[in-house]
Amino acid sequence: MRISLAVLFLFALPVSAAPIDDALKAPILERDRVLIETQNYLDAKVPKLPEFQTREQWETYARKLRDDALRIAYFRGEAAKWRDAKCNVEFLDTIPGGEGYKIRKLRYEVIPGLWIPALLYVPEKLADKVAVMLAVNGHDRNGKAADYKQIRCINLAKRGMYVLNTEWFNMGQLRADGFAHSRLNQIDLCGSSGLAPFFLAMSRGIDILLAQPNADKERVAVSGLSGGGWQTITISSLDPRVTLTNPVAGYSSFRTRIQHGKDLGDSEQTPCDLATVADYTHLTALMAPRPTLLTYNLKDNCCFESGYALPPLVEASNPIFKLFGAESKLRTHINRDPGDHNFGQDNREALYRMVGDHFFAGTNFDAKEIPCANEVKTGEQLNVPLPEVNLDFQKIALTLSKDLPRNRANVATLDDAKKWQVAAKQSLRDVLKLKELVAKLEEKSQETKDGLTVRKLIAKLSDSWSVPVVELSRGESKETVIVLNDRGRANTSMPYEELLKAGKRVIAVDLWYFGESKLPRHDYLFALTMGTVGDRPLGLQTAQLTAIAKAYGPVEVVAVGPRSSVIALCAASLSSDITALELRECMGTFREIIETNKSYETSPELFCFGLLETTDINQLVRMVAPRPVKLVRPAERALQTCGDVKEWYRMMGVKFDPLAKE
After folding, report:
1. What span, in angstroms and rounded, lies between the C-alpha atoms of 571 and 559?
2. For residue 126, what is the DSSP state?
3. In terms of Cα–Cα distance, which of 343, 231, 356, 348 is closest to 291?
């Protein structure tokens, strides 16, 4: 759905003739313009499920879709090796459950060195063939000890099923900063899929279930609420071993999420490049013809309200179930009481009915919940000892980053240096997913007072993006400088006055996600969505800056802050219209992002997939050479990592020290 900007109320405050900062603070863009442009751009890039005439056409498509999704989104880089790694499972003590079952504590490796705890609910009477279920949980601090989850596991165990209750990252026993889901993007930064541990935690859980005595590989179910619902559809759609699924209030189409911001998912739910091959409509359709129960809540106070989240999923997947003559295997359930974000008794009994109909057909199976509140245990009772040393996302990223970037600038001659620059710039373009934008400058107002001329403009970029621009000048200017700031153009720490005194024309811009161009709500979640449709926030910002530089060129660029400095370096590396850089507060290496345990929401563009695998700060400076790069108030690490850059400049015939005093 495209939203017309014409329906918005257009407004612009008059330019103040008073101080520079007053002139810079007045808005230029209409309200929500950047948000609407972002929604429109992303919506157009989400893939649609094609139509299929035969079952054979679908099956061919489905095989490729699974392979592509796993290869592109889940197991890229070093993560591909984790898939086949030998991982250990250790069963510990067994504790009493209740009538008809016991609980075995265990821990298992997701990848070598990363252990998670789990509980195996074991029926006392095992049939010749035993159905199994993987029970996953969502964003609940209680993790595997959540009472509604225990009740679900207990009820299915009492009905004769093996149930594996696994812990989820950053929940329950694994609640730790290094497991925060936004830390998985540190692994992405290194060129490997941070999503892989999430998938492997589930697939190895199914391995454990199917290794149990008499486990029936024809009856394998998965269920979970919220983030557990996301886990459920993810493993069920991409692992054909799953034969019944019940995601509860766990996901919606990317298109739905773009329009209903509260549905926008965390890093694991919006993984890099998934939407280049599949939407969640595709994943739902991949369940055909396996029994699928889509459970949603009428008045969900968290996300995924049934009224808007459920219909697109059913509309997309029902024709595929029909190809198999399996329409009856696609079911929906809407909880109305209490109707909030829950996996309460009504939703649980819908699951029991589904299990009874498809796993226990022809038997005396009662779907009414068996009361078991007195069998629910505390987190302490269910605690599973873990090794003292256990990997987390940050530790994995630290290990991956040690030998990065791969293509280092170790050259001895000028010819080799130039060849290295050409190859390095192409690699940078590739990792940024860089697209060429053309800027058309549209003037909104102009005023001169006390010798200061202020022009307000909108840079229209290839009919997709609008960037607010304030142009400042005093008299005739012989040089032009573009100024960026992590805190936006109106920040008073900007060096506007000193640049004007030097006789320069100053172009103050707010690129996407900064200042006036910052999204008013759900900002970093839209940045994640930018990545999942195949673009990169850093690539968009770089393209915007290079387009504006070309419109004004030649230009110098002054960037204030570590984030703006990286954007400026990327743009200058790839654009000859930028003749010089001044970077204030620039970081020294992308490894600092991991070493200081930064999370995605603080600086989305710095987590560009594969950026550290491809390049680093000192290499970006080398790409800009022999054009001057001045570092003012650099981070301490910059003094270490960029100190040898002057030797590079000397090889290129330029006597220049980038480490300059302010």
Report:
1. 11
2. -
3. 356
The pTM assigned to this predicted structure is 0.94
Nearest to 507 by CA among 564, 443, 556, 543: 556
Tokens 């873990």 correspond to what residue? 386
From the list 55, 49, 571, 81, the residue with the least C-alpha distance to 277 is 49
Residue 550 sits at the vertex; the CA angle it makes with 546 and 553, to the nearest 5 degrees, is 120
Alpha-carbon gap, residue 355 to 290, rounded angstroms: 12
Positive/negative CA dihedral, 472, 476, 482, 486: negative
CB 149 within 8 A of CB 165: yes
Q: Is residue 27 within 8 Å of residue 13, measured between CB atoms? A: yes
Contact partners, residue 605, CB within 8 Å, separation at least 6: 513, 527, 536, 537, 538, 541, 563, 566, 567
C-alpha–C-alpha distance, residues 572 and 563, integer Å: 14
Sign of the Cα torsion 146, 151, 154, 159 reads negative
Convert 504-523 into a string of H (helix), E (strand) and C (coil). EEEEEECCCCCHHHCCCCCH
Q: How far apart are CA 356 and CA 411, in angstroms?
A: 68
Structure tokens at 10: 């257009």
Whole-number pLDDT of residue 3 = 46
Q: Give the β-pairing of 330-335 and 292-297.
A: parallel
Helices (H), 70-96: 79-82
| HSE-up (13 A, CA, CB side) for residue 301 | 6
Q: How many other C-beta atoms are found inside a 10 Å radius of the C-beta of residue 226? A: 23
So what's the pLDDT on residue 657?
64
Distances (CA, A) of 367 to 98, 215, 415, 441: 19, 22, 75, 66
The dihedral through the CA atoms of 652, 658, 659, 662 has a sign that is positive
Task: Give the pLDDT confidence score for residue 647 in this predicted structure.
Answer: 79
Helix axes 33-45, 523-532, angle to 10 degrees: 30
For the chain, list the domains and their CATH numbers: 59-385+393-400 (3.40.50.1820), 403-651 (3.40.50.1820)
Q: Which of 476, 425, 464, 471 is nearest to 622 (CA)?
A: 425
Q: What is the mean pLDDT of each run of 10 residues along the chain (662 residues)?
A: 41 46 90 97 97 97 98 97 97 97 98 98 96 97 98 98 98 97 98 98 98 97 98 98 98 97 95 98 98 98 97 98 98 98 98 98 95 97 97 98 88 89 97 97 93 95 96 92 95 80 95 96 96 98 98 95 97 97 92 96 97 95 92 74 75 71 49
Under 8 Å between Cβ of 96 and 313: no
Cα end-to-end distance, the chain, whole Å = 49
Number of residues that this document lists for the chain: 662
Structure tokens at 130: 């035993």
Residue 128 DSSP SS3: coil
pLDDT score at 450: 86
β-bridge partners, 130: 215
**Could you tell me the two tokens for 412?**
């001895």
Residue 108: per-residue pLDDT: 98
Residue 633: predicted pLDDT: 79
Report whether 383 contacts 173 (CB < 8 A).
Answer: yes
- Please give the angle made by the CA atoms of 460, 461 and 463, to the nearest 5 degrees: 80
Phi and psi torsions of 299, nearest 5°: -120, 40
Q: Which segments of 260-305 does DSSP mark as H helices, in order?
A: 280-285
Q: What are the angstrom distances between the C-alpha of 484 and each of 396, 511, 570?
A: 33, 8, 13
Chain position carrying tokens 């005595």: 213
Determine the residue type at 500.
L
- pLDDT for res 214: 96
Question: Tokens standing for 612?
Answer: 């550290």
Provide the b/e sequence for 285-304 (b: ≥16 CB within 10 Å): bbbbbbbbbbbbbeebebbb
